[in-house]
Design a protein that fits this description.
TIM Barrel, 6-stranded mixed sheet, Ala_racemase, Alanine racemase, isomerase, single chain, 337 residues, Lyase, Ornithine Decarboxylase, Chain A, domain 1
């Protein structure tokens, strides 16, 4: 069976590097949504807990239930209120309707829109938002925003930073009048965290950075945590002139020893159609089209490392490492090494 191996030392290194830059583990929110970007959320959570991290963010209540044993505080980012919210969690409220629909007395972080125009309360809606918060006795514990282009070297990062400072100032004033005196503010996810050197006493939300993928700052010393391995299903000699796989897209120039390995697009890999040169970690190319449950390559032994840096596959498929990682099937066994 295929395996995903997680490098514990690399993960601990990344967490320590992040905490050192922001100044305190207490100021880090570990984003572990979507099975921790395909890595295995509960596995990472156990290590993070052991070294002192106490706050995480997830996509929904299902993920929060899985991670509750590991963290003191859990923020649910993409919750759609149904009126039965739990006091165990903090819920992001992404619009005025969410504030109206959420259960009275719920713990909330107010999402504010500073430029991305995806989720969040507008500055012009803040007074109305606080009227709802007061009327429903909601427990406001923080406010946050999300940068739309922190991974791009443009002025938008600074525009949003300034917009958030303005909104934060107004939130603090209104919140103080209502008795909310200790709020957690956070605006910087991984790329914005890398670009910042003054965090204004804010928390940071780190997702892909904790997993070893820096967008800008190589000096952070981050190391990829995950490597993907496939096991041999069968082997054979592919004769000169013979093709392998659907459509025979690869044809051997001379006799060669090939093998079939037990990973395919059914396991979450993007489907390679045999065009171009997509390589394994050993730099051996995949041969022909990828199947649902397997691929072919030169026979390199019982096990082959498919990738240990998702950016290689992301570059080939013209996408981002997030997509390569998050698609990995939860049914692939994950192990620390």
């Amino acid at each position: 069976m295929a395996r995903i191996y997680l490098d514990k030392n690399a993960y601990i290194n990344n967490l320590e590097c992040i905490a050192k830059k922001v100044g305190d583990k207490e100021r880090v929110i570990l984003v572990l949504k979507d099975n921790a970007y395909g890595h295995g959320a509960t596995m990472l959570a156990g290590v993070a807990k052991d070294i002192g991290f106490k706050f995480c963010a997830v996509k929904n209540e299902y993920e929060a239930d899985q991670l509750e044993p590991f963290f003191d505080k859990i923020l649910i980012l993409s919750h759609i209120p149904e009126g039965n919210e739990s006091q165990r969690y903090i819920y992001a409220t992404n619009c005025l309707k969410a504030l109206r629909d959420i259960k009275d007395g719920t713990r909330v972080h107010l999402a504010v829109d500073t430029l991305m125009h995806r989720n969040g309360i507008q500055m012009s809606e803040l007074d109305e938002a606080f009227e709802i918060i007061k009327a429903k006795n909601l427990v406001l514990e923080g406010a946050f925003t999300h940068h739309r282009g922190a991974d791009e070297l443009s002025a938008e990062y600074f525009v949003q930073d300034q917009n958030f400072k303005s909104i934060k100032s107004k939130i603090l004033k209104i919140a103080s009048e209502l008795g909310f005196n200790k709020l957690d503010f956070h605006s910087r996810a991984s790329a914005a965290f890398e670009r910042a050197f003054d965090f204004d006493d804010e928390l940071v939300r780190v997702g892909i950075a904790q997993l070893g993928y820096a967008q800008f700052d190589a000096t952070l010393g981050l190391k990829p945590v995950l490597s993907l391995w496939a096991k041999k299903v069968s082997s054979r000699v592919l004769k000169a002139g013979q093709g392998v796989g659907y459509g025979g897209k690869f044809v051997a120039d001379s006799d060669m020893n090939i093998a079939t390995y037990d990973l395919g697009y059914g396991d979450g890999l993007l489907r390679y159609n045999g065009v171009g040169r997509l390589c394994l970690a050993s730099n051996e190319p995949l041969l022909g089209r990828m199947s649902m449950d397997s691929f072919s390559s030169k026979d390199t032994g019982e096990w082959v490392c498919v990738f240990d840096d998702a950016r290689v596959w992301a570059k080939f498929f013209n996408t981002i490492e997030y997509e390569i990682l998050v698609k990995l099937s939860p049914f692939i066994k994950r192990e620390w090494r």
